[in-house]
Amino acid sequence: MTTTHTYDVTVEWTGNLGPGTEDYRSFSRDHEILAAGKVPIAASSDPAFRGDPARWSPEDLLVASVAQCHMLWYLHLCAVGGVTVVEYEDRAHGVMTMDESGGGGQITEVVLRPEVTVADPSMTEKARALHGEVHALCFIARSVNFPITHLPSIRVRGA
């Protein structure tokens, strides 16, 4: 039997400055991402497309989703594999390449740079190797059509 999970969100445009979408410059790209029981996410388009740089863009959120999914699966694999992670931070980087017409584009690469701190030196090699197992499990990584590169850095607590 196939198991499914569903995700319901509302995207609400908050950028009507008065004249609506009368022309390309007459409206803000601001919007909120809403879901029952969750804090709203203030979002906009990328600043390159007249968006508010202080708000999350769809591109930011896609890169964050890749990094989050990798981290959550990685922590799971470490927990069941005997690797004690005490700190984890990822400075993920995504690249969007515009098509030649300038009207569209796509995310063409995400690079994850997880900085992991483990509890004991004996855990470093396994901690590094487990990053390679995540891609086959991560729901987001399995759902996208661009390459995801992992460049992990493993440290030992107190070292």
UniProtKB/TrEMBL annotation:
Pfam families the record matches: OsmC
Domain of life: Bacteria
Signal peptide coordinates: none
InterPro entries associated with the record: KH_dom-like_a/b, OsmC/Ohr_fam, OsmC/Ohrsf, OsmC_Ohr_Peroxiredoxin
Name the record gives this protein: OsmC family protein
Source organism per UniProt: Streptosporangium longisporum
